[in-house]
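[Archive record]
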Amino acid sequence: MATRRQLSFQDKLNIIKEIDNGMKQVDATKKYGLSQSTIATFLEKRKQIEEAVNSNEINHQRKRLKIATIGNNNAAVDSIFINIENKVEEPFRAVNVEACDNIAGSWWKVLEKTIRNCWKKSRPSFHGG
């Protein structure tokens, strides 16, 4: 079974351009080790891929186009904290995967200074035990 790998929007756009320049889809599948249906999906979603690469708001090396919502993020964080507080063995397991992806993606934008200020202001206390 082939291993699953994710390509950045820039990589996908490069493949689309090669096909536009005359490369056959069959040759692209061999060159990049992708299925024909994956290549067809890139071509089908050409507009979204081009917009992602050309957008100032989205890193063109990003691999997925998911927009975070505050509600999903807050619910996921609340669920994680409740699970930790209740000493659940795997506190992240029942959390919405998409929300976790959004939270993880959002962390790249958080500055160290912001985190330090939050810890200073909240003065969290942890219960032993």
